[in-house]
Write a structure and sequence with these properties.
The protein is mainly alpha-helical. The protein has 17 helices and no strands. The longest helix is centred in the middle third of the chain and has 24 residues. It is globular, with a radius of gyration of 18 Å.
Length: about 280
C-alpha cells in the first residue's frame, strides 16, 4: 500500500481480497503459455460466473456472429482482455456478503457504468475500451466494501448507494473515516491493479485533475465521470432521472457538447435496452 492512502482512518485490514476465480484467471492470462481450455476450466469452477460470461458474450453488445455455447469458444472469440473483464464483473456480484436491494443496486450500477464507459471509449476513441470497462466497473468498489463491513449504518449506506455529492462525502468521512472513493482506490491498489483504476475510483466524481499529467488517465477519469450518470438515467438508482450530461466536468474537459452526448446516449440506450436482461441478470 503506497503512502498516499496511509492518512485515511478506515481500517485497511478490512479490505477484501480479490475473488478467487478472478485472481486465478488473471494469473493464467499473465502467463505466456496459457490455453483457452485452461482458462475455461478455471472459470467453470464458479457456475454462476460461467453463466454470466456466456450470457454477456452472446449479447449484441459484443457483436458475436454466432451463438457462443462454450467458455473456450467465448475466450477465443472475445479475446483474453475482454474475457478478464467479464469474469471480474461476474465475480464482483459474488463479493457481497448478503444480497438484497442495496447489493442489487450496487451490482447494476457497476455493470451499467462499466458498459457505458466501454461504449464511450470505443465511440470517442479516447481510451482503451477494455480498460474503460474495468474503470467503470470498479469506480464504486469502495461502496461495496463499506456495505459489507459497516452494514449497521444502513440508512447512510442506502443514501451513499443512490446518490453522490460533497455533503455525503463529509458524512462518509465522519462515519467511516474515509470516503468510498478513497477506500475504493485503496482496494484497487491492494489488489495490485493499475494506478489508472485507482485514480478513476478516487476522482470519478470530483474530476480533480490537478497533479495528473498523464493525458490517458485524464481522459479515462472524464469518460467514467460521464458514464457514472448512466445508471441514474436508466433508473438503476430508483426512478429514471434526466441528467444534463453536457454540464458534467468530464464532458466539459473533453469538449463534448449536448448534441454529441445526446447522440451517444441514444445509441447506447438502444444497445442497453436490447440486452438489459443479459447485462443485469
Amino acid at each position: 500500500m503506497s503512502e498516499k492512502f496511509q492518512n485515511i482512518n478506515y481500517d485497511l485490514d478490512k479490505l477484501p481480497t480479490m475473488p478467487v476465480v478472478a485472481a486465478q484467471m488473471i494469473e493464467l492470462i499473465n502467463s505466456p503459455n496459457t490455453s483457452a481450455d485452461q482458462l475455461a476450466r478455471v472459470i467453470a469452477k464458479d457456475p454462476a460466473v460461467s453463466a454470466r460470461v456466456l450470457k454477456i458474450a452472446n449479447s449484441s453488445f459484443y457483436s458475436m456472429s454466432r451463438q457462443v455455447t462454450s467458455l473456450s469458444t467465448a475466450i477465443v472469440i472475445l479475446g483474453e482482455r475482454a474475457l478478464k473483464n467479464l469474469v471480474l464483473a461476474a465475480s464482483m456480484r459474488g463479493m457481497h456478503q448478503s444480497f438484497g436491494r442495496v447489493e442489487q443496486i450496487l451490482w447494476e450500477d457497476s455493470m451499467v457504468c462499466a458498459l457505458g464507459s466501454r461504449f464511450l471509449a470505443r465511440k470517442l476513441l479516447l481510451a482503451d475500451a477494455e480498460e474503460a470497462f474495468m474503470a467503470g466497473l470498479f469506480r464504486h468498489i469502495g461502496k461495496v466494501v463499506i456495505n459489507n463491513q459497516d452494514a449497521d449504518t444502513k440508512q447512510l449506506i442506502l443514501e451513499m448507494v443512490t446518490s453522490e455529492n460533497r455533503d455525503l462525502a463529509d458524512r462518509e468521512r465522519k462515519s467511516f473515516g474515509a470516503t468510498h472513493a478513497e477506500i475504493g482506490a485503496a482496494v484497487l491498489e491492494c489488489w495490485q491493479l493499475s494506478e489508472v483504476l485507482s485514480l478513476v475510483a478516487l476522482h470519478h466524481f470530483d474530476v480533480n485533475l490537478s497533479g495528473i499529467e498523464d493525458q490517458d488517465v485524464i481522459k479515462m477519469i472524464c469518460l467514467v465521470n460521464i458514464a457514472s450518470e448512466f445508471p441514474a438515467i436508466f433508473g438503476i438508482l430508483g426512478k429514471p432521472q434526466a441528467v444534463d450530461l453536457a454540464a458534467l466536468p468530464g464532458a466539459k474537459a473533453l469538449h463534448l457538447d449536448a448534441d454529441r452526448l445526446a447522440e451517444l446516449l441514444e445509441e447506447f440506450c438502444s444497445v442497453f435496452e436490447e440486452n438489459r436482461e443479459e447485462f443485469l441478470a
